[in-house]
Structures are given as structure tokens and as C-alpha cells.
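Protein in question kept in full:
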Amino acid sequence: MLDIRFGPTEIEINLASILPKNGMVQNLDFVEDQLALKYQQQCIWFTATDGENTQSPVLMAWLQRLQLALHIANDKIWFKSVVPCAEQWNWQPVPLSAFKDVHKYVDPDSMNRNLSKAKFVGVLAASRFSVYRMRMIYELGKTFAGQTYVTHRADHSSKQLEVAADHYTNEQSWLDHTVFHTDKVININGQNNILNYVNATKAYQHIWNQFKIEVITETDEYQRTWFTDKTAKCLATGKPFLLLGAQHSLQTLKSMGFVTFDQWIDESYDNCILATQRIMAMIQSLKTLADHADRDAILDQMQTHAEKNIELYRNYVKHH
């Protein structure tokens, strides 16, 4: 539903109805039609509190065209968002709320941290469907059969894949024949722990010791400055990880002060332009680690290193 409100001095436009998480832009024609009829030199506020990509080239080009047509000055345009807007417009930052909330719901000191029965790699990809999450779990499951802990809603993926079924027959067959760990996560304390990030965070401590290294599938694969509970859970509990976000998301996380694992794995995947390229490079990094003669010792070293993020995360929450 289009979310746009007109007032005498301000116009508020919620970008959630324009910038969905698949990276596409939609509904600009409706917004443009309404602005052409009702714009009277008000300030225009674009709100994007759920990580929408305010630097989308399509959005920026459209807005510049709109400015030209309606004679809108740069100082009349404001973005209230997690992701910074282009430099010519005004930006009011919004905190990484879900990222910061995680410390309220997990206590690393009270968790079962015994990894003796843990699988090699885990990926929690049971919330919103994206083709890249599906690609990630498929490549992991195919490469590390029997060594993965995966949460996923296969029925939901199957429905989404119908749009290109002829091109995803192998992936669909794998989904049909794979048993995921989703039910265990849903049923903790009778809560749906997949679609609600608070419940998912509380449930995380019950599955933390089921895998030694996590592949984080962040919510948005197109912009690199927004992190959610998905990343924060690894940081707050000291879990080694690889990060599937946008290009240079890992670099951004490092700039925020957190440690990563380039001493032991190839993190050049972070430089790949396309999400699928990043996924395949991540698989290769993990395969090199999995095949290493000293894999268990390396994983132990990575675990010790990851625990530095616990205090780093606490400090981040305290000062931001």
C-alpha cells in the first residue's frame, strides 16, 4: 500500500512501499502523479527506517527529474533513514534498532557453548525469501552435505521459484529432498521464532552450539551500511561468520570496529560485485577451510578470535 501524506508544510513518503528488499523500485508513477497534482513548495520527507536503499540509482535519477519538473530545491528534500542519502540532500540518521536490540535478548555467558557435536556450517535463512538466500543454502547443502545446519521454509521458496521454474529444477529437487531444522526453531517456547526478530534472537541461544561457523544472510544484498539482528547475533555471542550482504558489507563492519576472520579464510568475496559471485566465492573460502588438514584447530582459533566481538558489540551498543 502506498504510504504518502500531504500537509501544508511537509509531505511524508514512506519508502517501504517504493524500495522493497529485492533491490527493485516500484510505485514511483503513483508518487509522481500525486506530487504533480499536490506539491506546493512543501518540504518532502522520505522515511526509510527498515534499511531501504536510499542510494538506489533509479530512485536518485527519478528524484532529480522530479526536482527539475516541479522546481524543488535541494534543501526541500529530506531523508530520515538508516542508509545515508546522496550528498546534495538532507539526511537525518536513524539508529540500527534491530542490530542494537540483540544485547537485550541474548546472554553469551549463560549459553551452552559446547561445540563438540556441532556441524561445520550453519545458515539461518527461514525468514523473507530472496533468490540469493536460496542460492546460498543450495550451494552450502550441495557442497557440505551432512555438515550443514540450515533453517529454511522450503514451501515458501518453492512457490517463489515458480516464476522461473524451468531454470531452477536442480534447486527445486534439492529443496524437495532436504530436511531443514526450521521446526526446532519455530517450536521453542511455542513461539514463531522465524518471522519475529525478537523471538528469533531469543531462540538463537538454543541453537548457537549446533554449528561452528555461520553464514549470515543479511536482509539486503544491495546496500552495505544497514545491519540487522542477523549480524548482531554473531557479534553479541562470539560466533565466527561469513557475511552475505552487499558488496563491501564486511569492510563496513570492520570500519565499525568489529573483528573478522581474514587470518584464516579468504574474505575477498566481499569485493565481488554481484551477490551470486559473492556466494560462490564464499563457498570456495569455506571449502578451502573444510579441506584443510588442521581444520579443527583453525576453527578453534576462529572461535577464540570471534569472542572479541562480544565486548566490541557491548561497547558499540553503549556508545551509539
